[in-house]
Amino acid sequence: MSSSEVAVEQGRESGLKPIPGPILLLGAPGVGKGTQAKELVKLWGIPQISTGDLLRANVGQGTSLGRVAKEIMGRGELVPDSLVDEMVAVRLQQPDTANGYILDGFPRTLGQAGWLDGRLAKQTQGLPVVAVSIQVDYNQLLRRITGRRNCPVCQRIYNVYSHPPQQAGFCDVDGAALAQRADDTEQVFKERMRAYSSMTAPVVDHYRELGRFAEVDGDRPIELIASGIVDAVERLRK
What is the pLDDT of residues 46-68, one digit of tens each? Predict the structure, then answer.
């Protein structure tokens, strides 16, 4: 029996909920991945690890990794995988990751997935990554994104299709004219979907081949999606 199987079995025998371990949460733009990550943080008491947050924190705190990243970004270049890997490695050493963590935006490439799998395989205890993808119909996602409007005064968010204001174009609370973000257009959405699909497909195939991948229906109430993710993780951990 592997160390990961021992960890799950010990959780069952103790009567406690299975240890979630590291979870890669996948989802196209607009599926509500951030909302679900917050739900899972509350349910499991494990941290969400976002590479975007890590990058901003390292740059803001002026760490050695952050200084290198700032210099690279200052030249208009993309931060390389190797530097992001180092930031993730430092974060995973913190004690709040002992029972697991929710990965958001990492691993984004097949190279990063291989690096993470290799790092976790070297640990004497712990669980491997399982990947769960939130699935929503393309047209539904398009309506979520392009229908989004926000109030510049109170920051209330509406959707002209699913949650419209009482008076079209104006906020219910303060009457301010609603605005659409410049990147909430169909053209930008299509470009983001193409980029997401091309980048994520190899990562999905990687974890699917390892038997550590599941999909959940994301076109449901928030709590039901969260429950579906929990069920998927527990199945993958058996």
Answer: 999 998 899 999 999 999 999 99
Cα–Cα dist 214/196, whole Å: 18
Q: How many CB atoms lie within 10 A of CB 38?
A: 14
**Pairing label, strands 213-217, 130-135:** parallel
Residue 192 annotated to the active site: yes
Q: Estimate to the nearest angstrom the gap between the alpha carbon of 124 and the chain centroid.
A: 26
The residue to which tokens 């699909």 are assigned = 197
CB 39 within 8 A of CB 218: no
Domains of the chain as residue ranges with CATH: 3-137+200-237 (3.40.50.300)
Q: Is 33 a catalytic residue?
A: yes
Catalytic residue among 108, 144, 149, 237: 108
Opening angle at CA 148, ends 154 and 220, nearest 5: 110
Instruction: Judge whether 148 counts as a catalytic residue.
Output: yes
